[in-house]
């Protein structure tokens, strides 16, 4: 099981009231919410191994170099840090410390997003893989033959859509292997990806369905005798510079230098003394107890 950790702690932050606080009054709603999410996922799905994948670089320079607008609207300051709610930022180091003390494997790689870590680990895994994320970009990893699926939470992780190849075909009208090309055409305002003018989700799916992939769509645009309408051809040709680089930005990296780790879930905390201190300092209460009970019962 591969967790898109930031996606989950953002969801926990907005789903758990800020009235959930540490003894000193600091909000710990994201911390406790994430612990409950992990407990529920382990209880419901019994993964043999689990990795909390982290954004060591939420906006990698190599993606920005290709498309400068990539996530630009989320930049909080000249240093390039991400715009995050004031009461969430201080909780992230606590989340990391608690996961480490429990013994849950955490991986982030400089220069890469959590998506890229997830993609690399999923590609290298010999067995079934469950990715837990609220990010549709990771749908491109779905592969029924290899047992790679996505759990896409509706609200909490106890209520997830299971995204397999059939689900992608039903939702978008494309195959999982075509999803990245489809997403590049469609664009994604939430990531600062403009897409192609006049091509939304439905049209992108139609074009990918007709021409198989982005290369086929672009070849049709360059062919004056293709069946594309003049307006669609013009828009695709005008977006040529974007389409030259968009696939590399949209596609999840599969060759990240991830460290070799043992991601087996622990039956007991890796560092009980540190965990006890963290639990007292941050008032982790029942959320931590529930996760430890689930881990011990496996």
From TrEMBL:
<keyword id="KW-0540">Nuclease</keyword>
<feature type="domain" description="5'-3' exonuclease">
    <location>
        <begin position="1"/>
        <end position="268"/>
    </location>
</feature>
<dbReference type="InterPro" id="IPR020046">
    <property type="entry name" value="5-3_exonucl_a-hlix_arch_N"/>
</dbReference>
<dbReference type="GO" id="GO:0004527">
    <property type="term" value="F:exonuclease activity"/>
</dbReference>
<comment type="function">
    <text>5'-3' exonuclease acting preferentially on double-stranded DNA.</text>
</comment>
<dbReference type="Pfam" id="PF02739">
    <property type="entry name" value="5_3_exonuc_N"/>
</dbReference>
<dbReference type="InterPro" id="IPR029060">
    <property type="entry name" value="PIN-like_dom_sf"/>
</dbReference>
<keyword id="KW-0238">DNA-binding</keyword>
<dbReference type="InterPro" id="IPR020045">
    <property type="entry name" value="DNA_polI_H3TH"/>
</dbReference>
<keyword id="KW-0378">Hydrolase</keyword>
<dbReference type="InterPro" id="IPR002421">
    <property type="entry name" value="5-3_exonuclease"/>
</dbReference>
<protein>
    <recommendedName>
        <fullName>5'-3' exonuclease</fullName>
    </recommendedName>
</protein>
<dbReference type="InterPro" id="IPR038969">
    <property type="entry name" value="FEN"/>
</dbReference>
<keyword id="KW-0269">Exonuclease</keyword>
<dbReference type="InterPro" id="IPR036279">
    <property type="entry name" value="5-3_exonuclease_C_sf"/>
</dbReference>
<dbReference type="Pfam" id="PF01367">
    <property type="entry name" value="5_3_exonuc"/>
</dbReference>
<dbReference type="InterPro" id="IPR008918">
    <property type="entry name" value="HhH2"/>
</dbReference>
